[in-house]
Amino acid sequence: MxxxxxxxxxxxxxxxxxxxxxxxxLTVKNYDFYLRRxxxxxxxxxxxxxxxxxxRQYRLYLNRxxxxxxxxxxxxxxxxxxxxxxxxxxxxxxRDVVSLSSEKVELAKQQDRQVSFMEGSDLERFxxxxxxxxxxxxxxxxxxxxxELLFSTGLRVSELAGLKKDQINMEKDEFxxxxxxxxxxxVFLSHNARHWVAEYLKQRSDDEEWMFLRHDRAMKRSAENxxxxxxxxxxxxxxxxxxxxxxxxxxxxxxxxxSYATDLLMNGADIRSVQSMLGHASITTTQIYTHxxxxxxREVYKAFHxxxxxxxxxx
Length: 315
Description:
Layout: H1 6-19, H2 25-42, H3 52-64, H4 75-94, H5 120-128, H6 137-153, H7 157-161, E1 174-178, E2 184-188, H8 191-203, H9 231-244, H10 253-266, H11 271-278, H12 283-286, H13 294-305, H14 307-314
Antiparallel strand pairs: 1-2
Helix pairs in contact: 1-2, 2-4, 6-8, 6-10
């Protein structure tokens, strides 16, 4: 039987991602772009044309490639290309198509990601900010509920925007959310988050299924006011209250996700539990948070390692 061309295999791979793996349309689009760039660059048609040497040359090409802003590609961007290639090679191996082993494709070493988070007085001022600003009562309560829910659950902005009222179990203080890749995970409500979500729902007189609605247009009842809030609107809300709270660094909904994870680790949660609560597929993704606990480790070191010296002084 004739071996399909790489172009045909690529089309089938993208369909496989969409249908079998339930990958988001954006991810499918990105994989399509990365892999077609590789096949076009290498003028590749047969699966056997993908060799270790060809991949080495391609990595060199990516290292020297500049974006439209005349900047070299970041290591993370170069890795996205290689991750897509590895996934494609794994797919071909699954179909018994002879090509390079995916294990032969190594990723570029990256610098540790810098995690931005809030704590202490900054976090308190930020969470209280919606109640300090004069605005429509329902907007004030909605925004307070949004901020408390983001910090309480570590939800991604898209997950929060997609919430429906019947998802949240106010009696059990927990609910299930469908995250990346369609994976389900349980998130938990703090007392504050539950209180403000309940207060917001009391203000609502509509029959809409969405948890958070747009209320930004006067008081008149219009179709516009009953649309679900968008991820972009949530980003603007977070940035607005960060500025109102006098926080100078850039704050995003993901900063609250980082703050959630950091708070858990600082208070003794183990990394595997945090991985589960964040919905990370790989523990390596969660490990970006471990360095934020260095201060905690320093305090442990001072408390326990210095005891010998202190005892000698006391003697």
